[in-house]
Amino acid sequence: MSKIFALSEAGSIAIHSMVLIAQADVKLNVIKIAERTGSSKHHVAKVLQRLVKDDFLVSNRGPHGGFALKKEAHQISLLEIYESIEGRIEITACPMEYEICPFDKCIMGNVIGTMTQTFKDYLAAQKLIDFID
Q1: What is the radius of gyration, based on Cα positions, of the chain?
Q2: Rounded distance between C-alpha atoms, residue 88 and residue 54, angstroms
Q3: For 68-123, what is each residue's pLDDT tens digit?
Q4: What is the domain extent for residue 73?
Q5: Beta strands in the chain (DSSP E)
Q6: How far apart are CA 33 and CA 39, in angstroms?
Q7: Across-strand partners of 127?
Q8: Does some domain include residue 116?
Q9: DSSP 3-state helix, strand, coil percentages of the chain (rounded to 5)?
Q10: Residue 62 CA to its chain's centroid (Å)
């Protein structure tokens, strides 16, 4: 079965992990996050280290270690998290990135550009604080 939209595993891990960390009263370690997200602890660790590098998280080692937000939850959007892992979302006129279209009118219209802009706007509007009870 085909999907029009698919979120990468790394992007999903990043967003879900950040929400879990924002919701937690204590630091969460890789093992707890991997269990909650159903992901490999190695993949979670790799994604979280990227988020540390990009100043979204702080991490501490040891028995009481784990990850915590570096900024306040209201300051972090899902778009920032997504783009930290996937790179900037680019809105393109042509989904095939053709320089010259062989047709007078694009067969896809601007549906791809519209869908991409809608997704980007949604992520930008959602802050971590919106997912804390």
Answers
A1: 18
A2: 14
A3: 999 999 999 999 999 999 999 998 877 777 777 788 888 888 888 899 999 999 99
A4: 9-131
A5: 57-60, 66-69
A6: 8
A7: 77
A8: yes
A9: 50, 10, 40
A10: 27
